[in-house]
Write a structure and sequence with these properties.
The structure is a homotetramer. By secondary structure, chain A is an alpha+beta fold. The longest helix of chain A has 9 residues. In chain A, strands 1, 2, 3, 4, 5 and 6 form a six-stranded antiparallel sheet that branches. Chain A has a single domain, classed as Hotdog Thioesterase (Thiol Ester Dehydrase, Chain A, Roll). Chain A contains three helices and six strands, in the order βααβββββα. Chains B and D meet through loops of B and loops of D. Strand 2 of chain C pairs antiparallel with strand 2 of chain D.
Chain lengths: ~130, ~130, ~130, ~130
């Protein structure tokens, strides 16, 4: 599991006085850096392989400016060429948002999804959790 | 159905050379302004009522800078206090992303969801589509 | 002069209830698309030439969600390899922000600024205004 | 002086392959949290006092995804009701951007700038640096 501490920014709030819902996908993406590194160790865009095909987020509780947030990121099911990322966001001990993201292992040259190689599969397995 | 034309911005692209996936929730939210006006005609934040509880997006095709995008937004199922928004995003005639957003009719004073009043229900019905 | 109409988004507001100041550089950049096209007619990133070296913005009046904004963009002084962009933002007839941006004509291959060619100079001249 | 470590996000890059210039104002704003706390210790928006009137940024060197950034923030000249913030951004030991931001001590109730109280002046002085 990956843990990412995020400090909310004024620019991430909205007129309702708390964090805007479109900020959460940004934070969840930030929490996936460790996964991106498994697919593209140098994080270079020309070698980038992990491409998102679905995101799903439950908004459970309002998130406020002025207090850090923890994002927990782990791997769920791993298929042939795709895999599921699971994520939870806490602030002040409360679960505030929960999401999944489905990624495929994409080859930019052929522009096709490819089977996930065994070496990457092993690393994903290390970050996998049943629930 | 609401139609919103959006011009992609350089700042909305990412290092892969196309629109970053976290931009799509921003554009879909922009496409819901007509719905926000049904709940809060003056769009003032202190009277705001439509609060998101879930977002789900399928990313189907890459979206590019340099060509306008159309966002189509309509109403799906309407429940007692919640309702479903459906949305599709096209660029150059291709469906590039498709999503749903679940909102509740939220009372900021009591901090509770409330039944959707009939007058609002009638307006939502006007923008409802079976599929 | 280029005119760009921008519809403010909920995600661009902040907890103070109006548009966050970090949104203005995004809108001003959006207003420069016509200038980017002069340097890179196909707007492709691999041929991109206009690179910003300075931005300066005066924030004059609060900007609100719920009403369109007009961004006016024109060319000021044109130097050997650099040029000045001037911009103003109005909402409801009021000047709300005013800025300048300095760009250079940058060659990505040599990674150096280059003199602005005469053909581009002519097009910039067309959008130049004394003040 | 305030030091803020920021981890660049994929969503903050653009098609050129590095951090988009509109991200820098967001990071500089994040670096000012310590200053916002001096004016509004609970960081609540209804008591917010520090309002920006000018931002000026020099873009010196490209900033990349994949390596942390340090933002240094300090106080320059303090006037009667306004003050100057100075900021520098480094990545991998290189100065990449440098900026100033002018703020006023704003009273939301009267909607007027007010003299900066002595207690706040003393705290600003603590973070002041000649150059």
């Amino acid at each position: 599991m990956f843990t990412t501490i995020i400090r909310p920014r004024v620019s991430e709030t909205d007129g309702m006085g708390h964090i805007n819902n479109t900020t959460i996908p940004v934070w969840f993406e930030a929490g996936r850096e460790g996964i991106f590194r498994i697919f593209t160790p140098d994080l270079s865009f020309k070698n980038w392989k992990a491409v998102m095909v679905n995101m799903n987020i439950d908004f459970i509780k309002e998130i406020y400016y002025g207090m850090d947030v923890e994002v927990y990121t782990w791997i769920g099911k791993v298929g042939n060429s795709s895999f599921l990322v699971k994520e939870e966001l806490y602030q002040d001990g409360h679960l505030c948002a929960r999401g999944t993201a489905t990624y495929v292992n994409f080859n930019q040259a052929t522009r096709k999804a490819e089977p996930i190689p065994q070496s990457i599969r092993d690393q994903l397995e290390f970050h996998r959790r049943e629930e």
